Amino acid sequence: MRVGLIFEGTYPYVTGGVSSWGNTLIKSMKDVEFCVIHIGATPEIRKPKYLFPENVVDYFEYFLFANYTIKYKRKITKDFGNKLKNILRYPFDEKSIAENLYDLFQKYNDYDFTSILKSKIYWDVMLNFYKAYIPYENFTNYFWTLQSMLLPFLNSMTVDLPKCDVYHTITTGYAGIVAVMNGIKNNKPVILTEHGIYHRERQLEVLKAGWIKDEYRIAWIKLFNTISALVYKGSKKITTLFLKNQFFEKELCNDTNKMCIIPNGVDYDKFSQLEYRKEKDPYIVGLVGRVVEIKDIKTAIKAAKMVKEKIPNFKLLIIGPIDEEPEYYNECLEMIKVFQLENTIEFTGKVNVLKYYTNINTLLLSSVSEGQPLVILEAFSVGIPVVATDVGSCSEMVYGTKEDIIGNAGIIVKPKDFVGLANGLIKLYEDDEFRINASRIAKIRVKKRYRLDQMIKNYKELYFSVVE
């Protein structure tokens, strides 16, 4: 079996998170061939952060904002343009549009869809939209905004991927679009795995983005919603990591029979052999993650200042790469200097985390967005309790579910709540009974629900179920 594993802006160029998950999935299925497909923004030379396992037999990359010349494909016809025009009607119901687009692509799938940008029907539709909805807007700005919205989508519809037995996309988005279109072209099944919910994440970004004018925010949101709805429609199976994610998927997907939950897993046997550090002098807390804004290191630094005032022998290790967002890293350094925490907080850079888990009492996670963090599962396997923000499945992992009532493996607080994070760290320092009990529960929970062998078994069964 050959699986086309599709990543958008992550593996093999970004460490941690989805990249780590994908690399582990590939390495753990030695009897399955993988074609790694990466989608970038613009053509550039980048150094991979991972060496491909031996069962990666092909690698393919394309870029969302490249201007491709595809001579061997037919240009968009007037008939297709008229049908598309009839689908894209106000009030632009995303699920309805996605259903109709999927039916249309069943008949029209081997075209150069980027050619629509040079067609008369596109020009006519664009002008009609302009006159009807934002005639007061600068037309040049309108023209190029529309181009920037559509080009990544049309490139993803047009590009031909290497032929595989199944296409497995790790997000809806453009990765999902290219998976669905190639699934249609090659009559192959598509599997979708969502760590985070793409349309929800994009909606938050659009609403906060300063570069997007208010006139275009709804259009961006509806475009991303339509993309997700189309990928849900075209996927044979939709997997996610935890139950809460499915509530968001159901906003744009009516077929719940395709949905299933496959939690992340870690090599419990490897991590559980490490000994948990019960000695708390000094009290050492570890934050394992990239120094980037989404991990909200600044909130962790604010919490560290409060903990230091209460626990003089406190140390915070920030364990992970520091080079992905240099400006943000420098801002963190400046904050540490202002708070006079130079002797309290240490950035390790990229290291082997196995050498650090035995040195920390508590894991800290201050992120503003996560799926199901592998670092929590790794720490739990060692027996390290966690103080984390309530993002992704962190609450479910730390507190358990209705089917898992063995107790708490740490403390959960709201995102950005540095006071809550500080109080949680102090609680785990002062309350020895709670800390040791949380350590015990953490190991039990991972062994029972989040083992790597369970995850690999589930995905392998899924692959074979869709190609039978």
TrEMBL record:
Provide the Glycosyl transferase family domain boundaries.
276-443
Coiled coil location: none
GO-annotated molecular function: glycosyltransferase activity
User: Origin, by domain of life?
Assistant: Bacteria
SUPFAM superfamilies, alphabetized: UDP-Glycosyltransferase/glycogen phosphorylase (SSF53756)
Q: Where is the DUF3492 domain?
A: 1-251
Q: Which InterPro entries match?
A: DUF3492, Glyco_trans_1, PelF-like
- Give the Pfam families listed for this entry: DUF3492, Glycos_transf_1
Q: What is this protein called?
A: Glycosyltransferase involved in cell wall bisynthesis
Per the UniProt record, the source organism is Marinitoga hydrogenitolerans (strain DSM 16785 / JCM 12826 / AT1271)
